[in-house]
Request: fold
Amino acid sequence: EIVLTQSPGTLSLSPGERATLSCRASQSVDTSYLAWYQQKPGQAPRLLIYAASIRATGIPDRFSGSGSGTDFTLTISRLEPEDFAVYHCHQYGDSPFTFGPGTKVDIK
Amino acid sequence: EVQLLESGGGSVQPGGSLRLSCAASGFTFSNYAMSWVRQAPGKGLEWVSGIDGSGHTYYPDSVRGRFTISRDDSKNMLFLEMNSLRAEDTAVYYCAKDGFSASSIYFFDYWGQGTLVTVSS
Reply:
């Protein structure tokens, strides 16, 4: 099973700042089959990025994904008030498909 | 507009059974794989089952042999039969649509709002 580790656990930033979230896999993720989701309290997750770097439909271009192999990054170029949430990475290259524990981005 | 509406959650004693349903609309259901993903209170996400368009099923070891996923393409419905439930199965269960195709399990582009399953004596 591929174990995903996300860091930091919590990121405290101000609106307008840049957020850099890391997702590290215990082994190489096949064909960069790595997705990122945003989740707000009491809501279902929302797809942001798939295939490591492709933005989902309707996702603002301030969100970008990069990486390959075992190291992946989600970057939010300038935080908007609605971006404060928990972010989950997800590998779908190898069953069982697994998620990271999440990074919470909160307001400083 | 894609909509996924889960139902069937509730409270059950350890060792009991529950059947979850997910009603799908707004897309050609048979053209996509579907999955169930759960989230224990205050915890992260865990994929618990998937089914492709041909009916092939996929499970992690944590639920294999206890959970059964199925689909009825004629009614645009997804199901999860859960048996031998344990306290650690307590979670919100989400129905999720595959974002790519019917051929296998990939990423999830639409999620339902979830249904809560509580396993407790």
Summary: The interface with chain B takes residues 1, 33, 35, 37, 43-47, 50, 56-57, 88, 90, 92, 95-102 of chain A (CB under 8 Å). The longest strand of chain A covers residues 19-25. The mean pLDDT of chain A is 96. Residues 59 and 69 of chain A are 24 Å apart (CA to CA).
